Known about the structure:
Chain A has helices at 2-13, 20-26, 32-49, 71-80, 87-99, 104-111, 116-124, 147-153, 164-168, and strands at 53-58, 61-66, 83-84, 102-103, 128-133, 141-145. In chain A, the strands form 2 sheets. Chain A has a 3-stranded antiparallel sheet. Chain A has a two-stranded antiparallel ribbon with strand order 1-2. Chain A is an alpha+beta fold. The longest helix of chain A has 18 residues, at 32-49. Chain C contains 11 helices and 4 strands, in the order H-H-H-H-H-H-H-E-H-H-E-H-H-E-E. At the A-C interface, helix 1, strand 2, helix 4, strand 3 and helix 5 of A face helix 4, helix 5, strand 1, helix 8 and helix 9 of C.
Amino acid sequence: MPLAAIIESIVFAADAPLSxxxxxxxxxxxxxxxxxxxxxxxxxxxxxxxxxxxxxxxxGGWQFRTNPMYQQYVTRHIKxxxxxxxxxxxxxxxIVAYRQPVTRTEVEYLRGVDCGGVLKTLLEKKLVRxxxxxxxxxxxxxxxxxxxxxxIFGLKDLKGLPTLKEIQALDETPHYEQQDDxxxxx
Amino acid sequence: MPLAAIIESIVFAADAPLSxxxxxxxxxxxxxxxxxxxxxxxxxxxxxxxxxxxxxxxxGGWQFRTNPMYQQYVTRHIKxxxxxxxxxxxxxxxIVAYRQPVTRTEVEYLRGVDCGGVLKTLLEKKLVRxxxxxxxxxxxxxxxxxxxxxxIFGLKDLKGLPTLKEIQALDETPHYEQQDDxxxxx
Amino acid sequence: MITRMSEExxxxxxxxxxxxxxxxxxxGPLDLLLHLIxxxxxxxxxxxxxxxxxxxxxxxxxxxxxxLEVAGDFLLMASTLLHIKSRMLLPQDEQEEGEEELDxxxxxxxxxxxxxxxxxxxxxxxxxxxxxxxxxxRSCPESLFLAAQxxxxxLELELFDLVDAFRSLLTRIPVESFHDVxxxxxxxxxxxxxxxxxxxxxxxxxxxxxxxxxEMTRELVIVTFxxxxxxxxxxxxxxxxxxxxxxxxxxxxxLQEPAEQG
Lengths: 186, 186, 262
């Protein structure tokens, strides 16, 4: 059933429910009646199969959705899936990593914004730790990276961190000796 | 087959390939062996069904992906990512993939040209990652391919790369085949 | 021998037209050399160096005539070729008596073979069904996904992202607000500072020798010393010495109050 498979692939990859009109528009080489029938059949097929997902009609269109029966399992995944770092967290972590030992004031000076919340998150995630208190008025806390930080990046020690120079070196062309006098004639 | 359906729902809902370990972690009430078998069976089921999408093993995990056969239909609706690789990016990527962990100097020796810019682009595109530093004088950065590389190129793992021997066989011309012994000297 | 004899008869007509079309099309000197070998149907295992060198130099000449900048990589290869050519011209008996004479071309041939292999590997990779080009995943996130915020999952972090974040930060702010860009030495010191502070969390007193006991290198002693100075400057530790030339001890300047934050 190639038409059904074609429809299935489109609906699967679409970022929103697809209406029958929209599907027909895309698959102009097929008859509307055939498409309509194939969609309905697909819906029945997935319903009977009762797998982990179904083809359902929502908001005037067709969409694959996980079977609500298994919602608790899906939620388990969502709760424990890997976390992508926010740009501000990444930036703050970078400052702590490259400027440690560093105080919150110093971090905030560099970022130009309040970093209390971000630093707290980094502390909670154990990527950053408090090294101690600076013995100056106000006794601000001093931050540095943790053992977990090294583990996450697979580093033996802080020496393994790529330096800015090394990254900037990628933009530079290597230096060649002057080679003006090549014998170019025959 | 509820276990299979549960697994299907999780894999279907996930936004990245799910490894067997990860699935087992989530479904702690099931036996690893049962899960393993169910996943394999699901893969076979979707392959035999040959619908619009398949359950494939990529980047060390399982993921539903559209069948490449229907690319032309899917792209009528979905905006394709403009994936265009320059020959130099491909060469560099291949060298990093096959020779990792590899330093910039090694890549440049193999390609005969400066590769700083290309490596940086590949880093920015997240196809290549910094693995750390090599324990030799100068401690140069070492590079390897990323999980994204496996995901984009649809590879199960690095062992899934076609072997260089296979690649050579594709290009073997009769001209080279006649070469029995390497003529050294005159 | 056959290749040698036919060298001069190779057809070089139309060389300029071909290369002025292909200018800049080569990804490097090895790519150009491979092209010359294929075009002339030469045997890669027995490259007639004189022919290849002349054609290669002609190519560079064309580039120069067109006032195009010739990358250093191409010039480097030109000198390599000339060097090989001159070694090939040495009479046999003047060459060093070795157990086995090494073909001056051997390294170049190996590089060409390797390069050809990776070039093809790149094309094989490109021909795969790529995610986002031929193959697609489900692009609609579950509504659950959008609602749920998770805190328990493992972190996804890349070294490059970290250094890149720092780099883009530096481009945003004035340079003078920075002391010297972190170098390897700075990291060693930071590492050492971290070490000392970890030790001071476990015990109240640390002996200088404890820090350098494992590998007593000059570098480590200096770095440790600098770390201690920095910690003193930050007023994080206090130093004691047990008499003249006695043991050096240090203790935390302020006792930790771990529960306190901000």
